Amino acid sequence: MKTLSVYVAGSSAEIDRARAATERLRAAGLVVVSTWPDVVAAVGDANPPDASRKDRAEWARTDLDEVTVADIVLLLCPHESAGRGAYLEAGYALRQGKPVYAAGRTEQSVFCALMSEHVLDEDAIDAIVEWNARTAEAMDLRVKEALNRG
């Protein structure tokens, strides 16, 4: 059975929050595909003033590619006005028909109304874990039914 993959979208100003969510998702057995926190840590900023256009484009493409391969997106709505990229990533996921779970101050964007909204990060993560369990059970049932027919 395929393990659910998750992209964690958040503000680089709240990188510890993204790391905590990543750890919690991995502890629940999910695969986290977002690498932006590691990139930000390595280069020292989400958008360093001395970064070349080529580097910025590569980082952006990587993020969007990771959203594309993810089964689901967790949007950690930034507590401050930062985090424009997180909303772009969530919108990109919505356009692809992926489920997006939003945690935090979801009232900051009308687009969060198109997502599964949660006040606490932990509640959104719990909902993702439950969704994964329901999806896995449904897949197991379909496999058993197919084997019984065969």
**Number of helix segments?**
5
CATH topology name? Rossmann fold
Task: Determine the strand fraction and express it as a percent band.
Answer: 5-15%
Domain module count = 1
Structural class determined from secondary elements: alpha/beta
User: What assembly state would you assign to the polypeptide chains in this entry?
Assistant: single chain
Extended strand count: 5
The biggest sheet, with number of strands, parallel, antiparallel or mixed sense and barrel status, is: 5 strands, parallel
Q: CATH top level? A: Alpha Beta
Radius of gyration: 17 Å
Layout of helices and strands, plus pairs?
Layout: E1 5-9, H1 15-27, E2 31-32, H2 36-43, H3 53-69, E3 72-77, H4 84-95, E4 100-104, E5 116-118, H5 121-149
Parallel strand pairs: 1-2, 1-3, 3-4, 4-5
Task: Give structural notes.
The protein has 150 residues and is an alpha/beta fold. The chain has a single domain, classed as Rossmann fold (3-Layer(aba) Sandwich). Helices cover 53% and strands 14% of the residues. It has a 5-stranded parallel sheet with strand order 2-1-3-4-5, with helices on both faces. Strand 1, helix 1 and strand 2 form a beta-alpha-beta unit. Helix 3 packs across helix 4. The radius of gyration is 17 Å and the shape is globular. The two termini are 19 Å apart.
